[in-house]
Structure formats: structure tokens, C-alpha cells
Amino acid sequence: MSFYNFATKVLLMFSKTFYKFEVIGKENIPNEGNIIIACNHKSNLDPIFIASAIQNREIAAIAKKELFKSKPLAFILNKLNVIPINRDKPDVSTIKSILRSIKDGYILGIFPEGTRVKEPGFGQAKGGLTVFAVKGKADVVPISIISNYKFFNRVTVYIDKPISFKEYYGKKLTTEENERLAQNVLEVIKENYYIHSK
Questions:
Q1: Average pLDDT, consecutive stretches of 10 residues, N- to C-terminus, the chain (198 residues)
Q2: Residues 6 or more apart from 20 whose CB is under 8 A from it?
């Protein structure tokens, strides 16, 4: 068993032990093909819940490069396929690494808002999601995490159907177009969040 598979099984055990953990829509994560998962982000626990929810494929998540300053943490993050990124100005090599991970069969994990949104509500989507979907020729799966993050309370991970960006393959989109398309995905995430919060 790989380190990644071992770690995700431990995380699933953690999620089920300390929360009322529920996953809806597992069947919407295909076993193969180019896929990006896009999820709301309100807590540092979100990556744990995502890794717990998706067990049929390995995820390569994007995370802020500051997390890699600690050598022990950097070692673990590298083992878990996490890709460091400069959120203000991603360099070409990082973008190539991200696209390579999609090509190599990993599911790319992105938080469209680019950072945690701690207050109620949602932020605005960044255009990076669209860039990677179009350049990586990947469908985007919107995922909503619904939780108050308190121990032994409910955590619902709602996985919606993949969204195709095929009509944009090979096109050069403006920053505004990238942001608008990414925001469309975030609107799906928001709608599912509020529906399943009731």
C-alpha cells in the first residue's frame, strides 16, 4: 500500500470517528479521465474531508507555498502529491507541474476562491480553475463541504456531476472570461451548499 493510500484511509477513519461524516455523489468521480475537483474552503479541515471522501483516485492538490517552509511538513505534503504555488504570481514551472499531474492521471484539487473564506458566505472565484481545466482538457467536478467543523457534528461532502469545458479547448480566454467561467462553477458549489445545509 502506498503512503498516499495509507494516509487517506487514516484520514477517513478520523473523519468517521470524530464527525457524522457523509459523502453524497461518489459516483460522480470517474475512475479515469482528466478531472479537476473544485471545492469551497472555510477550514483547514477541508483537505482532510476531501481526501476522505475520494478513495478511488489519488488527488494532487494545490496549496500555498508557505506551508512548505517546515521541512517535516513539506516531506509529508510531497508524499501526498501536494503542489506548492505562489498564489500572487504562479511561475511557469508550477503551472507545468499542475498540468503534468492532470496528464499523469491525478485528480487536481483546487479551491476556486484561492484561500479560506472564514466569514459566512463565499468569496470570488479566481481564473486559475478555468485555465487549468482548458489547458489540461479536464472536466470540473463541483464539491460542496457543508459543516460547522465542530467535533461530532455533521459533515456532508456533496459531489456534483462533472462540468465540461470542452467548447473552450484551444481558445485563448481573457482574464475576465476565465474568472466568469470559474465563478459559474463556484455558483454551483454555493447552490449545493445552501440546499444541503437545510
A1: 94 98 98 98 96 97 92 93 86 92 97 90 95 97 97 98 97 96 98 94
A2: 152, 153, 154, 155
